[in-house]
Amino acid sequence: MNSKIPQTDAICGWANEQLKRSSNRLFEVEELLGDASTRSYFRLRTESESWIVMVLADRKGAYVSEEQGAHLSDELPYAAMTRFLRTHNWPVPQMHAFDEERGWLLLEDFGDRALQDIVEEADDAAIDECYRQAVELIFQLQSSVHDALTDEVPAAHLRNDQATLLWEFRHYIEYGLGTAIGNTIEAQHEDFLLRRFAELSEEIANAGYVLAHRDYHSRNIMVRPTGALGIIDFQDAFLASATYDLASLLLDSYVDLGWDRIDSLVAHFHALVVDEGLFSGSLEPFRRLFDIQGIQRNLKAAGRFVYIDKVKGSARYLDAIPHTLENVRINLGRHDDLRDIGEVLAQYEPMLRGGEDR
Question: Does the predicted TM-score (pTM) go above 0.90?
Fold first, then answer.
């Protein structure tokens, strides 16, 4: 047991009580690298079993959507979404216990091998199989799980609408182009970008809404020992376009899947949603929606990474910015009517300059 971790004894005693274990049986405690939130995580391990404890440092804030500032429900959104998703057979961890007063959650442990590790370590066949599963889980979320949404589910009240999409574009202008590299954007260029980003936001919003995980990428998708996938960090799920999670997965800031694999998986997903009647168009308009949603989400992510550095004091995401903006550059270059956006952004952002479009 690591006595240097605050509250170790109290957490272990509480976990023993919740699991109905003998109080004299000790855990090994490992502090895990958390996300960009105020949550912290610990793994409790015995010789044969392990669990995760999530600690909510900001218990009041855990009931609010961090980015949209909306009070979601009187029940902890994580708990509500866990129950809903598990009821509808989406693979999220079981919640064994929740101490609301202390902000402690005792969770099933999906292990420490993420999809990012598969991309970095496994062969092409293993990568293809994991990503096929991941794409089909998005399809399940949009079809059978979405159909079960009720007003009691926090995600039903959060919509990635036109105003939100445009706010996220503005976030990139403020932090990605402003704070990050100290640029003062010319008024005519800022006006141009805001006008064009408003048009893209409207195009995405007009495509309709389905249930989306919101942060569906290689660090939040765990590969369990059985080979099945498990999904974490889902508490901020909301309603978004049919390509939101797909763009998050395939245009990931943390891994480079290669465009041949991306193209194949987009086509596979399109076939699934067309067969189910969730999308009525051909691959071409679906691909455009994927591209512009990817542009929007990647720019939002790049701005957010800088915000986390400048405002929250963590530089851990800055290394992901070049690949994130490379995705933007390529997708802008795929569409003649979007090249003007790329030309203006490239005047301020070196990572959006140069190179041949694929």
Answer: yes
